[in-house]
Design goal:
Length: 257
């Protein structure tokens, strides 16, 4: 089964943001990494993947001069992250009414390759999963990127950070009655967010008493969706560029001095 990729590229660092000096008012996705816009490395990985059909990129347009070997469609920035994801999913549904899943990929993980894309896509259980969320073990991340200084969540059985390449059901994203609406409604309210996850779940997370499987099950139950967390063996999926030292890491990994 091929998935259509949805690349989120809507973030624009503002003056005062540590990445502003590198973006100069343009999309973060277009910051140079080893002679290419950061998002071009992501498109190269999707181009070489056997699991990707079409690609929709949200937040930049044709003037960016990007290329992709898969059919590529552009969509203007829809506002916030959730609005961009919903707009991108709607575009994919227009292009392919039979599409079941989209692979949501952040534009700021320029170290991914086709093997990593194929691995994530292969984890989807059609008809069972409504969403998969990649997590990377602390030891995996720190062995590959010892100075990344990521933020890790302490679980009972492991420390993990999040990955930025995750498959989700298109009907789920486009639903006006399902959990996606609840998530969108709560996106600016920490109190509502806590209510979605469940205060008991938050407490157990804070105490480090939840396993990965247990945490995923509780959150899925509270949101009313069928989602799983998967331990992704590729640290590159979690090596997103949030700060200048992350940019330095990915540039060095791509051979830029």
């Amino acid at each position: 089964m091929k998935l259509h990729a949805l690349v989120t590229a809507g973030g624009v660092p503002e003056a005062g943001d540590p990445l502003y000096e590198f973006s100069q008012g343009r999309s973060k996705a277009l910051i140079d990494v080893a002679g290419k816009p950061m998002v071009q490395w992501v498109l190269d990985a999707l181009s070489a993947s056997n699991s990707i059909g079409q690609v929709v990129i949200v937040g930049v347009d044709e003037s960016a001069g990007l290329s992709c070997k898969k059919p590529l469609a552009y969509l203007a920035n829809q506002g916030g992250m959730l609005d961009n994801i919903r707009g991108g999913a709607r575009k994919i549904a227009e292009l392919d009414p039979d599409a079941e899943y989209t692979l949501i990929v952040s534009s700021d993980i320029p170290l991914i390759n086709a093997e990593m894309v194929d691995w994530v896509c292969a984890q989807v259980r059609p008809g069972e999963d409504e969403g998969l969320y990649s997590v990377i073990l602390r030891q995996t991340m720190e062995e590959r990127f010892p100075n990344s200084m990521r933020t890790f969540t302490k679980l009972k059985d492991m420390h993990v950070c999040g990955g930025d390449m995750n498959p989700f059901s298109i009907p789920l994203i486009l639903s006006h009655t399902g959990p996606w609406e609840k998530i969108a409604d709560a996106r600016k309210s920490p109190i509502k967010q806590a209510g979605l996850v469940g205060l008991d779940t938050l407490l157990l997370l804070l105490l480090g008493q939840l396993t990965l499987e247990g945490a995923a099950a509780r959150v899925s139950k509270n949101l009313g969706l069928r989602a799983r967390a998967i331990v992704n063996p590729y640290a590159e999926v979690g090596m997103d560029v949030d700060k200048p030292h992350h940019l330095e890491i990915v540039r060095r990994a791509r051979g830029q001095s």
